[in-house]
Amino acid sequence: MYDVSTRKRALALVAQGRSLNSVSRETGISRAAIRSWRHRLEPLPRMAPPDPGPPADNSAYAYLLGLYLGDGCISAHPRGGYHLRIACADAWPGLLQQCREAITKVRPAVGVYALQKQGCVMVTSYSRHWPLLFPQHGPGKKHERPIVLEPWQQAIVDDHPWDFIRGLIHSDGCRITNWTTRMVAGVRKRYEYPRYFFTNVSDDIRRLYTDTLDKLGVEWTQCTRNGNPFNISVARKASVALFEAYVGPKY
User: Fold this and answer.
1) Contacts for 72-81 with beta carbons within 8 Å, 24 or more apart?
2) Model pTM?
3) 70 and 137: one domain?
């Protein structure tokens, strides 16, 4: 048996646009029970909440913006409102946790849950106001439409550039180990050094990345592969040192 507060909590999750399956997994309550409560308890008010305003944490928002531009999307819910979804590869559990924490810091009042897909987890959050925080949302793929930051977004990125860069790298970037050899006292020795890549097919998103690197004094080069200029490399020692200090490898 469940008390009224438990039932109302489950129904509140459903009212946020969550499926019966996800609410059942989170609460441990069967779908049949939740379905029956929707008819037996007094309906919860479905008035649209007021716009909560700017991000609650600008540093977390800059990071989340980078994740969204790389591996995020916003989709409308059939009953109103929107789902923000960020794809996080199973190989990086630390990234999954950082993504959840960033959403919670940006919007402390919203719920965050994870949906397992093949090879990745979709970190998902429902709100009626996600498009206000991510006005780059629109129909079609990001690289097929203009991606331009609003002045208030650019101000946040200017104040928290490394958080933005870290979000972009965590979504569409990687840290690899390059190697080379050189002769030292007649002996050929192997040297290894880290290198960072960012890959995105959107010219606008790559430009946001490189413009921010320029402001940070980071040297970068564009690498063309198979005729496609989709890769941005950071390999100079001083610039890599900055990345090691402020970005680091995924984990």
Assistant:
1) 72/134, 72/171, 73/137, 74/130, 74/131, 74/134, 74/137, 77/17, 77/126, 79/17, 80/17, 80/48, 80/128, 81/16, 81/17, 81/126, 81/127, 81/128
2) 0.77
3) yes
